[in-house]
Write a structure and sequence with these properties.
By secondary structure, the protein is α+β, with helices and mostly antiparallel strands. It has four helices and 31 strands. It is rod-shaped. The N and C termini lie far apart (147 Å).
């Protein structure tokens, strides 16, 4: 049962289905709801009537839906304690037999005090609006721009730079999201993350949550801002490979007989630059004697240590040096008188000198003379060859 005068209470959002509605109630036994001003008015639905009665009495109440032209409009408790909602709007005052249940909406951020009036909830840092049912149980309803939180929580969370809330520059955000790769934000209370200017990258490179954007240094460039780093500007004949310039054609023009070696970055000889003569081969960039002698030696000489040396004449060669009337004695290695010859050595065929000593002397003289002549010839040939 309701008390006779000024019962009051509060209906929450869930009870009434209204948004941020904080209602206080009281009963009137005279006049009409709203006569006293101050925001008081009549209840306008059967559901709100039952909710108001439950808030005052502390027990569930169901209001019957009726239509009377001779009873007060709105939510009515009649003389037998039953509750009904009069859908008509006659000009009939409240009475002790037909008590009117009136309500007042305190509005968001307020609560119904025990004095039957509205009081303001305690504020919460970075909260745009709060709600409460007493002076000490305040909860957030919406957070300021740049902050986020779920209605009913005790605090609003900071959305750090490099991120933005789901409401951008507006209040009431419930989530915070890092800027995508290539975008950045100096603060979270902005409508959207910003794009870097041309030839710039963010401080997180290819990562999310960037707070700044930096131009590429001299000699570097970037086609997009969502990359890990700026890349070098490559010159002619080079290509960017693995973030560095690699040569794709020689920058050096090599001479004839040489080819550019990209590994050593030098011109290297691919054919001899020196033409070697017969009997020699290029070895270690110089001509070396091969199996065929580079020098042809004359008679009586032989190539030794790459030069012609005089050799000892053979018996046949010495025999050819003996003059007329002499022959070569192999045992003595010299010319002696030829006993079969009619000529005397060193004389005409009319000379008769049978002296053996004279024969031997004449033969020896002829041998010595021819040997000297051969030696001189060999030396001259060797001189010209060398």
């Amino acid at each position: 049962m309701f008390s006779k005068l000024h019962l009051f209470g509060m209906a929450t959002l869930a009870m009434l289905g209204a948004v941020d509605a904080v209602l206080v109630y009281k009963e009137r036994t005279s006049g009409e709801c709203g006569d006293s001003g101050g925001g008081w008015g009549k209840i306008t639905s059967a559901a709100a009537c039952g909710a108001g009665a439950s808030a005052i009495a502390g027990a569930a109440a169901i209001a019957a839906f009726k239509s009377f032209s001779n009873k007060p409009p709105g939510c009515i408790e009649q003389y037998d304690g039953s509750l009904f909602f009069n859908s008509q709007n006659p000009n009939v005052d409240c009475s002790s037999s037909y008590k009117c249940l009136c309500s007042m909406d305190c509005g968001a951020g307020n609560y119904a005090s025990t004095s039957g009036s509205c009081s303001t909830c305690v504020t919460i840092a970075n909260a745009a609006t709060v709600q409460c049912t007493t002076g000490s149980n305040e909860k957030i309803t919406t957070c300021d721009a740049g902050y986020y939180g779920t209605p009913g929580e005790a605090t609003c969370q900071t959305c750090a730079a490099g991120s933005i809330t789901n409401t951008g520059a507006g209040t009431g955000a419930t989530t915070c999201t890092p800027c995508a790769a290539g975008l950045y934000s100096l603060s979270s209370n902005v409508a959207s993350c910003q794009t870097c200017s041309n030839n710039s990258i963010t401080n997180t490179g290819a990562g999310t949550g960037a707070t700044t954007c930096t131009p590429c240094a001299a000699g570097l460039y970037s086609l997009s801002s969502n990359v890990a780093s700026c890349i070098p500007i490559c010159g002619d004949g080079t290509t960017l490979t693995n973030n560095k310039c690699e040569m794709n054609s020689p920058l050096v023009t090599c001479g004839n007989g040489t080819t550019f070696n990209a590994t050593t970055n030098n011109c290297e000889m691919d054919s001899p630059l020196v033409t070697c003569g017969d009997g020699t081969t290029l070895t270690a960039n110089k001509c070396e004697t091969t199996c065929s002698p580079a020098v042809t030696c004359g008679d009586g000489t032989a190539l030794t240590a790459n030069k012609c040396e005089i050799t000892s004449p053979t018996d046949d060669a010495l025999a050819k040096m003996c003059g007329e009337g002499t022959t070569f004695d192999k045992a003595k290695k010299k010319c002696v008188t030829d006993p079969t010859s009619r000529c005397t050595p060193g004389l005409t065929n009319t000379t008769t000198d049978k002296s053996a000593a004279a024969d031997e002397s004449a033969g020896s003289s002829r041998f010595v003379s021819r040997t000297a002549t051969l030696t001189a010839t060999v030396i001259i040939v060797l001189f010209y060859k060398l």
